[in-house]
Amino acid sequence: MRVLASLAPKGAKAMPDAPTLAEPGYQDAALSPWNGAFVHSETPDGTLKQIAALFDKITASDESKATFASWAWSLGAAPAELDAGRCRRTSRSGPI
Hints:
Shape: flat
Number of helices: 3
Number of strands: 0
Helix content: 40-55%
């Protein structure tokens, strides 16, 4: 399989021969990956904090950091940051 382009904002070590979509002129095509969990709106705060702590633990591992760095992706965001990003993406693309 040949990778034609990367959606990462900068070149990825894991795909050194793949250009980013920004290189041929598609600056708005870069994606910022995220991880998170969708939960019911009435999920108790304590449960939300437990879920966030689990994601923090996973993304803090050396293995996760190395893997995501090789893909030219950053890790970690608080739930409020993820929601803000979701709102920005929805405002650009419209509701799904």
